[in-house]
Design goal:
The structure is a homodimer of 278-residue chains. The first copy, chain A, has 278 residues and is an alpha+beta fold. Chain A folds into two domains: 152 residues, PSTPO5379-like, CATH 3.40.1640; 108 residues, PSTPO5379-like domain (PSTPO5379-like fold). Chain A contains seven helices and eleven strands. In chain A, the strands form two sheets. In chain A, strands 1, 2, 3, 4, 5, 10 and 11 form a seven-stranded antiparallel β-sheet that branches. In chain A, a hairpin with a 2-residue loop joins β3 and β4. Chains A and B meet through α6 and β8 of A and α6 and β8 of B.
Chain lengths: 278, 278
């Protein structure tokens, strides 16, 4: 993801003076009104942000099975009624056609471009899936005093395509995408403990310490996001990533599919703390 | 610990034909009768085994504080009344003077030798401490399907002296001793999850992946126990070890102190499963 719009630091800098960035309802209204198009990472602290995937009904059952079989990259938080752009369990006034700052449109599995609204594209047979996102567990890590390197640097989290094959479901298949955060060994242990409590937002890491063992040749070269800095004494810790369904969509090649643009998430009214299982 | 008596495999081999090795009461009776002197690792499966430390009352309060301040190496399961060789919360008929297969005697902080009974040494001012032991969490790891390399090899768990300073308490101070088990990265993550549920038997690892960062120069050379095999694709995972109090005893230099001989533990009537906090 080179040359993306706004970094987290820029987004945070431009916020908070003239509107309430901590209220998820106001954040969505601001986005819906076309007045915010940046990354959502710094917004609505304490509330769940979600990955979005929208598919024609003909593909929905297969994709639901794909999520069920691959809960670490695709933790399903909510699934819409066919044709409905609403997910009331995630927010009462939530409208999936307008409430994300940027959408990514795929046609026949190929990226067609990013758009700021999908009102024109909406179809009566669309089914929407909201999947857990790492922002939730990053908040838990930060609350526990663990430093998140890419937040400190104001850069995007590095993301890699692994050689770990997801369990296929119908036409959906593909390799797992992972995100990486470097930690000292002692903090890596704490990070496993903390994120294990959040299975609905990717849960525990899938790997640590040996990138080459999951098909990552050079951990300092990200596949998407920004190249990371891994200081001496830090080990790379890898979590399953919500970009994985985009890889599966490329494989399934539906005539149309819509996702969020990376880092431009669906902001919900669900509190992160309610997702903890321990 | 060179030239020790019996390996785990040898101990297991010589057992089980003429007596019930799974009943902790019978195991203790057999030891008390002088009919078993080997490692206890293969005995009384499902029951907690404990590290033992016995000190004169003049040292007991300071040692209790040392345990309280260093709960990972010294998780205190029980503490006796002064002069009492019993720990009723760990076993009704338990007698600390006779019920361990081997004891280690320290005089003025120096190792004086190993003995099979401490009836002759018992004093009215002795206070006994029972500390959690890794056998309990190893059982939980094995039950979850994780391979414990040194069990498979029939060798002793490798143990190292780190450069991690324990929090001192009075005359007790010293560096932390750790035990090591190698795992694949995915299994290392599971091992963190599983052992985190057992804080009373050392809990989560204290370190993984970078032995040199905790003062271990060569992970293939154990300080005590047997030298390990760390296969390619495995990372070393380190847990705080119950041998740590022996280091602190050497520093405090009490006129007399008695511990278990490594791997010759106190077998209790408490079930491992009752120690799980999650």
């Amino acid at each position: 993801m080179s040359a993306t719009t706004t970094t987290v630091a820029e987004a945070a800098h431009g916020l908070g003076l003239d509107w309430n960035t901590t209220d998820p309802v106001e954040v969505r209204r601001r986005i819906r009104a076309g007045r915010f198009h940046g990354h959502t990472g710094a917004l609505a602290k304490g509330y769940v942000q979600a990955n979005l995937a929208i598919l024609p009904a003909d593909y929905a059952d297969e994709f639901a099975r794909f999520c069920q079989r691959n809960p670490k990259p695709c933790p399903l938080l909510a699934m819409s009624e066919p044709g409905s752009p609403h997910l009331p369990e995630l927010g009462e006034d939530l409208d999936l056609r307008t409430d994300l700052p940027s959408y990514r449109v795929f046609r026949d599995g190929e990226l067609d471009g990013d758009v700021r609204s999908i009102e024109d594209l909406w179809r009566d047979d669309f089914v929407a899936f909201a999947l857990g996102c790492s922002f939730s567990f990053e908040e838990a890590l930060i609350d526990a005093g663990l430093p998140i390197r890419h937040w400190r640097d104001g850069s995007l989290c590095p993301v890699y395509l692994t050689d770990i094959e997801c369990t296929p479901a119908g036409r959906f298949r593909g390799r797992m995408v992972v995100s990486m955060r470097p930690f000292t060994p002692a903090d890596a242990i704490k990070a496993v403990q903390i994120t294990s409590r959040y299975p609905r937002v990717h849960g525990a890491p899938v790997h640590l310490g040996m990138p080459e063992r999951i098909g990552i040749e050079d951990v300092e070269r990200a596949w998407q996001g920004d190249d990371p800095v891994v200081e001496a004494g830090r080990i790379p810790v890898f979590w399953a990533c919500g970009i994985t369904p985009q890889v599966a969509v490329r494989s399934a090649r539906p005539p149309i599919a819509i996702t969020h643009t990376p880092s431009h998430m669906l902001v919900t009214d669900v509190r992160n703390a309610t997702l903890s299982v321990g």
